Amino acid sequence: MSETRWHYLMDMDGVLVHEEHLIPGVDAFLGELTAAGTPYMVLTNNSIRTPRDLRARLLASGLDIPESRIWTSALATAKFLAEQRPGGTAYVVGESGLTTALHEAGYVMTDNDPDYVVLGETRTYSFEAITTAIRLIERGSRFIATNPDPTGPSKEGSLPATGAVAALIREATGRSPYYVGKPNSLMMRSALRALGAHSESTLMIGDRMDTDVVCGLEAGLKTILVLSGITTRESMEHFPYRPTLVLDSVADLLGHTEAPFA
Q1: CATH, range 7-45+182-253
Q2: Catalytic residue flag (residue 11)
Q3: Where does residue 249 rank: exposed (0-12), middle (13-18), buried (19+ CB within 10 A)?
Q4: Which residue among the candidates 13, 115, 149, 207 is catalytic per the annotation?
Q5: CATH 3.40.50.1000 fits 74-179, yes or no
Q6: Is the pLDDT of residue 1 over 50?
């Protein structure tokens, strides 16, 4: 194992930061990866922000991560749709992270008989926009959602997220969305391609068993669960699968990034 040159995929919230606060030791961990020339990519199911916006957010927390090292469910969704139906049309319920990714993939945003209704995350879900989405799906538009997360974090507590709104639309239309983001291994594989890496030499670091770890397993990656976010040692035992390694945080990898399983 120690002779393998590892590539790293890692979740953002719960692994690198909590809201706007840096998790202790993360800056040193990323510094060690950078100094060794170890390729890595930060993944997030959040489709609200563009990689540029996320870079600014992380920079304010004390992490200097290039845009090219950030892969979002919005980027994965745009890539998927561009491959499925190049130059297509979409009605989008979401924010700039999603609309920008789709525009850059050659998509046209429209509410006039679009190929797809694409649901992403937003902090200001509009009942009017959701109603339009329902009617377009009823008329035949295909239903895509960036990720299935039912809630997202905020300083005040949980917020309804993409999965919760997708459930509303599903109940109204009888049509289930195709989710592109984690735990769909499609997002992991698209991140691997963006990184130029192979699954056999890549590991996934995440704080959730139900998205990060299962997604990594299904994509053929080694997985590391960190206990700095959602999953605890107790809740981990409820799942029928296990990560390759369990650590308190990425700080435990300091000095071992080239041979994490030694």
Answers
A1: 3.40.50.1000
A2: yes
A3: buried
A4: 13
A5: yes
A6: no
